[in-house]
Amino acid sequence: MDTDRITDFDQVPLYLDAAELAKTLWVPKSVAYRLLRMEGFPVTIIAGKKMVQKERLFDWIIRQEKLSYADMKEVSSIMRKIRSEINAWKEQWL
């Protein structure tokens, strides 16, 4: 078993620093540090140290997935509109 990864929700600490965030998300520490500096990421500063609360982390992940799904739906809608316009143009000019 890989000890550098957290594999169970109950193993995730209440507050995560960069090292624990990396273990939880299975990413390098450099990615965890970037997340902690990213605008919109739910950072809490405790004793001068950037951390993220467990529940807020998982809420943020869920919001990102929903945003991604919404973005995909919007792109799909735009592509259908473009195809429709291309077909209309072809009928008119070809």
General description of the model:
- The protein has about 90 residues and is mainly alpha-helical.
- The chain has one domain.
- The protein contains 3 helices and 3 strands, in the order βααββα.
- The protein starts with 14 loop residues before the first strand and ends with a helix.
List the helices and strands and how they pair.
Layout: E1 15-16, H1 18-25, H2 29-37, E2 43-46, E3 49-53, H3 54-93
Descriptive keywords:
94 residues, 61% helix, single chain, mainly alpha, three-stranded antiparallel beta sheet
In this structure, how is the largest beta sheet organized?
A: 3 strands, antiparallel
Range of strand content: 5-15%
Uncertain regions spanning at least 5 consecutive residues: none
Helix-strand pattern, N to C? EHHEEH
The assigned structural class equals mainly alpha
Described by the principal axes of the CA atoms, the overall outline is elongated
For the residues shown, what is the average pLDDT?
86
Number of DSSP strand runs = 3
Tally of domains: 1
What Rg do the Cα atoms give? 21 Å
Task: Strand order, main sheet: write it out.
Answer: 1-3-2
Q: With helices defined by DSSP (H or I, 4 residues minimum), what is the helix count?
A: 3
Q: Could you estimate the helical fraction of the residues in percent?
A: 55-70%
The first-to-last residue Cα distance is 63 Å
